[in-house]
Prior knowledge:
With 209 residues, the protein is an all-alpha fold. It is built from seven helices and no strands.
Amino acid sequence: MLRSRWFLALLVAVPGLVLAGFGVVHPSGLNADTAGWWATLHIILLPAFALLAAAQWHLLTPAPPVIRWAGRLAAFGFAAFYTGLDAVAGIAAGTVVDAQHGYSPEVGRLFAVGDAVGYAGALSFLAGSLLVVAGVAPRAGWRVVPGAVLLVAASVSFLDSHLFWPRGVYTMLGVAAGMFLLSYVSAPDGLGSGTAAVSSRRQRPKVLG
């Protein structure tokens, strides 16, 4: 059971770690030299952002029904809107700059639309993170605090950091660490329950007769 708890905690941390890794190689700006990689990278990022929403979805499993489904609606909103940013300001803008061999007014319009859609997605992610904390807290008690601080702080930073180095990378590392800790403290302590049950059976007096 302990191994299973560690495995699940690592699993929900993977999307944030993957996104942090991609943030290291994310171009700092879009121009004719970076356009090809800019578009390709954002195609790769589409499933990675969806997996981040899936991690939130999983963390909401132990929450009361109202919190669980409100949080999962927020996770869905993040997946929908933030991949919209990825498609418009990432794939489309990179493709246009690559085709035109330079920046143009049309690209500025794409960024304006993408930023608006992406901000809605980032707000949804923040809402989902707050609901994750609210759902884990009753089960974990004070142990929720380290993971909650990391996840909520990183979610606030995510509102305007995207994946750009260095802040965006540290933001995703904070998301990964927060999700890891919250997953670990919210898992049922099956190992401890089993040990307690065995101990109880050992201490139970035998009935003579």
